[in-house]
């Protein structure tokens, strides 16, 4: 298997994101995002199963039967004179061609290519924000007993939401519950309910198993698309132009054969997303509001666009459909969490890399800080603190950060802990203290933040950075070992554990942890090599050496299995 270097992954990543494996959100601007590029944005998520259209037309109407599984929305939310619009739960419609285990396997294979890519966002507060929102939506889906949400054991999806450094407005779902958000979508949204409406849509794609249904009915087309991805990956290191052609060629055949099914799947995802959004307490007007604003901003109409954009449901139809459902839900005032505005600032930072972009970004933040809306002011001052921190101007960073905190405290709703405390503010405060050489203060803030947000990756990483800065390597190793046992598929913990072992001068375990990191990034030969180095290094006790040997054999089997999927032989 040819290993693609990190420097070569960026173009591959973009092609993977545009590939047939991805269930695209296809917001009105999303099609045009890719219209200028080599690959169309009409992708696997925009298809549905043959013959499903008529069923959805019959079932997608107002359903008043109390026996309907999807009729669990509180009746007080709907005016008594009108029926409640509900999504018929299609259950587990995936066929035998792609099991849930297969979906997870394919999703993990794709993620191993995505994680080390430069366009993959490693901003942990953004990661925390997106996954906290997804957990809230999934809890609502479970209460509604939507198909797949209550799945247990090996068949359950391990939902994970990550960000992509891209200023375009788009989101997508991968097999197995992986969901990606472009930073441009976070920046463009005006409320967290708008972000949640997008996430609910993508969750609908996953729960309704649209990819499995596509592969069940369109196996040949999907295999053509898969082949295009693999060929494009192999060609990327030699000839990017040829790789693009291969990807396009594979897609063209598959897309051409799937045009008649795209609209039903998108409508189905819209409907289940709306149901989840309403049940989770977000503003149900988030989706139609976002659609309308994007339509005005882009000027996109339903005619005069490339054919692969027309495979998405008509913008006007989707807006009208969402507005009709929203009218049947009682109006409620849903405040936007202050964290949303700080995440917007972090998303702007993520998609601005060069020094010239940083200069423009600073001007943007200064402009926002002078606006009258408190949310924009918070985004502006917090963004200015991030820029100052990155430039090493710690006094400025502290001043801007305090102004952002003061604004957050002034607008927080009484008795609302999500509005009263901000993960991003606390993490940046800890990072600033550490940068100033105040390790004990940084550690104290990080520990308090982790206590308040026990599922936070950012807080855990901030605590580890403080431990290592203070030379408390044993504390860091103990915590990271426990965390890697609980979350063995998280690159961030293995990377930090490798650094901790390095600081502790434990050579074999440093290489062992590094091998696990490489394996999660899909660099199997490098991962195996690291474990061989760990096995041959002195210093490991009997238990550690046995664990390394066992893991090396397991890793070699996993690498062989993945090569078999691709019809290759493992190099000697």
UniProtKB/TrEMBL annotation:
Gene Ontology biological process terms, A to Z: proteolysis involved in protein catabolic process
Compositional bias (Polar residues): 67-79
Residue ranges occupied by any Peptidase M48 domain in the UniProt entry: 152-325
Region annotated Disordered, chain positions: 58-98
Cofactor: Zn(2+)
Signal peptide as annotated in the record: 1-35
Keywords recorded for this protein, A-Z: Hydrolase, Metal-binding, Metalloprotease, Protease, Signal, Zinc
Organism domain of life: Bacteria
Gene Ontology CC terms, in alphabetical order: membrane
Organism whose genome encodes this protein: Polynucleobacter duraquae
Presence of the UniProt keyword Acetylation in the record: no
Protein name: Zn-dependent protease, contains TPR repeats
InterPro entries in UniProt: Mito/Outer_Membr_Metalloprot (IPR051156), Peptidase_M48 (IPR001915), TPR-like_helical_dom_sf (IPR011990)
GO molecular function: metal ion binding; metalloendopeptidase activity
């Amino acid at each position: 298997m040819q290993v693609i270097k990190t420097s070569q992954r960026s173009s591959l990543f973009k092609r993977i994101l545009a590939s047939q494996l991805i269930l695209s959100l296809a917001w009105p601007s999303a099609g045009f995002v890719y219209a200028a590029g080599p690959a169309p944005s009409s992708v696997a998520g925009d298809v549905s199963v043959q013959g499903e259209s008529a069923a959805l037309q019959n079932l997608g109407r107002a359903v008043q039967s109390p026996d309907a599984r999807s009729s669990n929305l509180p009746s007080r939310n709907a005016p008594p004179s009108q029926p409640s619009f509900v999504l018929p739960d299609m259950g587990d419609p995936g066929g035998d061609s792609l099991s849930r285990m297969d979906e997870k396997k394919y999703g993990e294979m794709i993620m191993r290519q995505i994680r080390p890519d430069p366009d993959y966002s490693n901003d942990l507060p953004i990661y925390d924000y997106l996954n906290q929102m997804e957990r809230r939506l999934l809890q609502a889906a479970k209460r509604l007993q939507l198909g797949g949400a209550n799945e247990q054991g090996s068949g359950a999806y391990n939902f994970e939401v990550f960000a992509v450094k891209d200023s375009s407005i788009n989101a997508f779902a991968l097999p197995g519950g992986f969901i990606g958000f472009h930073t441009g979508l976070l920046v463009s949204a005006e409320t967290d309910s708008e972000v949640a409406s997008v996430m609910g849509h993508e969750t609908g794609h996953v729960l309704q198993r649209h990819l499995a249904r596509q592969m069940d009915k369109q196996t040949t087309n999907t295999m053509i698309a898969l082949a295009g991805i693999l060929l494009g990956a192999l060609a990327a290191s030699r000839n990017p132009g040829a790789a693009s052609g291969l990807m396009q060629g594979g897609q063209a055949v598959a897309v051409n054969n799937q045009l008649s099914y795209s609209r039903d799947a998108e409508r189905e995802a819209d409907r289940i997303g709306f149901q989840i959004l309403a049940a989770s307490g977000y503003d149900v007007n988030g989706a139609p509001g976002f659609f309308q604003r994007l339509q005005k901003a882009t000027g996109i109409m339903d005619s005069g666009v490339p054919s692969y954009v027309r495979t998405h449901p008509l913008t006007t139809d989707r807006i009208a459909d969402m507005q009709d459902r929203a009218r049947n839900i009682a109006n409620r005032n849903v405040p936007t969490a202050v964290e949303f505005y700080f995440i917007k600032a972090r998303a702007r930072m993520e998609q601005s890399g060069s020094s010239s972009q940083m200069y423009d970004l600073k001007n943007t933040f200064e402009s926002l800080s002078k606006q009258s809306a408190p949310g924009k002011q918070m985004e502006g001052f917090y963004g200015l603190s991030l820029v100052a921190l990155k430039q090493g101007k710690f006094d400025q960073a502290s001043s801007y950060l305090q102004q952002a905190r003061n604004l957050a405290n002034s607008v927080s709703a009484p008795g609302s802990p999500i509005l009263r405390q901000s993960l991003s503010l606390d993490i940046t405060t800890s990072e600033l203290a550490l940068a100033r050489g105040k390790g004990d203060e940084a550690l104290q803030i990080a520990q308090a933040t982790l206590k308040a947000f026990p599922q936070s990756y950012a807080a855990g990483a901030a605590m580890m950075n403080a431990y290592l800065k203070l030379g408390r390597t044993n504390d860091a190793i103990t915590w990271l070992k426990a965390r890697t046992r609980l979350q063995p598929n998280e690159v961030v913990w293995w990377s930090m554990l490798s650094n901790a072992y390095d600081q502790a001068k434990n050579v074999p375990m440093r290489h062992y942890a590094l091998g696990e990191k490489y394996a999660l990034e899909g660099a199997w030969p490098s991962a195996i090599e690291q474990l061989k180095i760990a096995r041959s290094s002195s210093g490991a006790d009997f238990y550690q050496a046995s664990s390394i040997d066992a893991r090396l054999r397991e890793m070699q089997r996993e690498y062989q299995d993945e090569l078999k999927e691709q019809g290759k032989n493992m190099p000697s």
